[in-house]
Design brief:
alpha+beta; 291 residues; 4-stranded antiparallel sheet
Length: 291
């Protein structure tokens, strides 16, 4: 009787260890997914601040300024723009210099300006140069100022970060699969003699596999649920601490990460259970003491 109770505790302990281990691995994968989401959101936000400044000819009539406003409002490459009139620029420069410029000269030396921000798909050196050249050809435009060196640096940095994140994600995914497979394998190992006993009573392979596969799927579901709950708590806490994270971790994206955790957890645990059980199905009784 004491031995039977000890076996039950051992089986329960192995299942509990398996669930905890898989939950931690899935949690790490979930955190990586959220980091990727935050990184992409930050990259899009950074790209949305790239653009160029359009200097309008000094003394351009109001009709030309209104026409340019309509052009930028409907242009497919424009994410947003800020219009500054000549008088606003004069006041800003006078405040910056600490002296009224109109006291030195009789006319306003500035023209109106448009600070144009391009959409993320146009936030590259080639695209901005092409768009700015098209804008510079307008008869009312005096000059277009671009910062191609900064744009190139931003895109280069984002490219390197993307490759680094992709490499880390791939490495973690491989490590996670190996760890989950080993954990499930150990859980099946603790019941290897049960498999041999079922073989002795002529149970079919599918009959023996079924409970182990179901147990693996259940373990995956439970582990994914635990990892998802911890992840949701982390997201809520982070969103309350930093409003920028709240805008990055939208409900739809977080739901996709949670769904991916469930899919990965159930799929890997089920396949690992099937392979581990098949391993002991093919093994002889004497091999049970060595494997």
């Amino acid at each position: 009787m004491a031995r039977r109770r000890s076996n039950r505790i051992s089986t329960f302990g192995s299942q509990l260890t398996s669930i905890v281990s898989v939950s931690l691995v899935l949690l790490i994968l979930g955190v990586l997914g959220l980091v990727a989401i935050a990184g992409r959101s930050g990259a899009d936000m950074l790209k949305s601040n790239l653009g160029f400044i359009v200097k309008v000819e000094r003394g351009a009539p109001e009709s030309e300024l209104n026409r340019l406003k309509q052009v930028f409002a409907s242009a497919p490459f424009v994410a947003s723009y800020v219009y500054s009139s000549a008088d606003e620029i004069l006041a800003s420069e006078s405040q910056y210099l600490g002296e009224d410029i109109t006291s030195l000269i009789d006319v306003n030396p500035y023209g109106a300006e448009f600070d144009v921000k391009v959409k993320s798909e146009y936030a590259s050196v080639d695209s901005i140069e092409s768009v700015s050249a098209m804008v510079a050809a307008d008869k009312a435009v005096e000059e277009v100022l671009t910062e191609t060196s900064m744009i190139a640096a931003v895109n280069s940095t984002l490219g390197r970060l993307t490759w680094i994140l992709l490499a880390v994600a791939t490495a973690l995914l491989v490590i996670s699969i190996v760890l989950i497979n080993n954990t499930v394998h150990l859980a099946v190992y603790s019941r290897r003699f049960v498999i041999q006993t079922m073989k002795l009573v002529c149970a079919t392979a599918s009959f023996i596999l079924r409970p182990f596969i179901v147990a693996g799927a259940v373990n995956g579901l439970v582990s994914a649920a635990i990892a998802s709950m911890i992840l949701v708590v982390m997201v809520v806490y982070a969103s309350n601490v930093d409003p920028l994270l709240a805008s990055a971790f939208t409900l739809r994206l977080c739901a996709l990460v949670v769904a991916a955790i469930f899919v990965v957890g159930v799929l890997i645990c089920t396949l690992a259970s099937m392979f581990a059980t098949n391993h002991y199905l093919r093994a002889d009784y004497d091999d049970m003491f060595m494997k």
